[in-house]
Design brief:
alpha/beta; Rossmann fold; 4-stranded parallel sheet; 4 strands; about 5% strand; binds zinc ion
C-alpha cells in the first residue's frame, strides 16, 4: 500500500501498531558525468515500490529526495540540506507516524552521506521520545555481494562507480550515458590521498578534491547483469527483514 493513496478512514481502520512503514531517503546530488542527480533516492524508492509488490500489506511513503550532500556542491545540480534540517525533517515525519500509532518504521537509505545524520536521528528519537526506528542502507543488506561485485578499490559502494552504475543500467538504462566517462577512467588510479582516511583519522573534504569528475570507482566495469543480481538480492534480503519485523510481538 502507498501511504499517500489512503484515506483517513482507511488509516483509522488499520492495525497501525503492526504495520511496517517504509520511508526511502536519498539525495539529489551529482553522480558523475554519466548518471543522473536522482540516483540515490530513485534507487531507494524503487526498492520500496518493488518490495510493496511482494509484501502488499506494508505502507510506503514517498521518498525524501534531498539529503546531506555538501561535499558534492562543487558540481552543478546538487541540492543539499544542512544535516540539522535533514534530521529535523525526518524527525517530524517519524514523530507524526508515531503519533498515529505506527511502531514499525524503516528508513531505507540510498545515500552514504546521510549515514551520520540518520544515526543521530535514531539516537534522538529513542533518547528523547522513547521509540525506535530501523535504519537500513540498502547495500548493507548484501555485504558479501558488494565485495564480490566490486571491480575497483573504492571504499564500500564507492560513488557513481561500478555498483551504482550497474544498478542504473538495470533499472533505468535510458538515464545512463557511459560515453560521458573519460576513456579508461577508474578512480583507484588517481592518487589524491587527501580523501583517504588514514589509520585512526577521518579527514573531511569535498569529493572534487578526490575526483575531478565526481566519481569514486570504475563505471566502465558496470553491467546490467551485475545490477540485476545486486538489486534482486537486496530485495530478497529486505523482504526477510520486513517479514521479521512483521512477526515481532
Ligand atoms: Zn549515490
Amino acid at each position: 500500500m502507498k501511504w499517500g493513496e489512503q484515506r483517513w478512514p482507511q488509516m483509522k481502520a488499520m492495525d497501525r501498531s503492526k504495520i511496517v512503514t517504509i520511508l526511502p531517503t536519498g539525495s539529489m546530488e551529482q553522480h558523475g558525468p554519466h548518471l543522473p542527480l536522482q540516483v540515490d533516492h530513485f534507487i531507494a524508492n524503487r526498492i520500496a515500490e518493488d518490495l510493496e509488490k511482494r509484501v502488499p500489506e506494508i505502507l510506503t511513503l514517498p521518498p525524501v529526495w534531498a539529503g546531506t550532500s555538501g561535499h558534492h556542491m562543487d558540481f552543478p545540480g546538487t541540492i543539499t540540506l544542512r544535516p540539522r534540517v535533514f534530521i529535523d525533517l525526518l524527525r517530524d515525519v517519524c514523530v507524526c507516524m508515531h503519533a498515529h500509532g505506527f511502531r514499525r518504521m524503516i528508513l531505507l537509505n540510498g545515500h552514504g552521506g546521510n549515514r551520520a545524520s540518520l544515526q543521530v536521528l535514531g539516537q534522538e528519537l529513542y533518547a528523547e521520545m522513547g521509540f525506535s526506528i530501523n535504519v537500513i542502507a540498502y547495500w548493507d543488506l548484501v555485504p558479501q555481494l558488494v565485495k564480490s561485485l566490486k571491480k575497483s578499490k573504492s571504499k564500500g559502494m564507492g560513488h557513481s562507480g561500478e555498483l551504482e552504475t550497474s544498478l542504473m543500467l538495470y533499472l533505468a538504462p535510458q538515464l545512463v550515458d557511459l560515453s560521458a566517462v573519460p576513456d579508461g577512467f577508474r578512480s583507484d588510479q588517481l592518487h589524491h590521498s587527501r580523501f583517504i582516511s588514514g589509520e585512526g583519522i577521518t579527514r573531511y573534504v569535498n569529493i572534487k578534491e578526490h575526483s575531478e569528475i565526481g566519481v569514486d570507482g570504475f563505471p566502465a566495469a558496470a553491467s546490467a547483469k551485475d545490477g540485476e543480481l545486486f538489486y534482486q538480492s537486496v530485495l530478497t534480503e529486505l523482504e526477510k527483514v520486513v517479514r521479521e519485523l512483521q512477526a515481532e510481538a
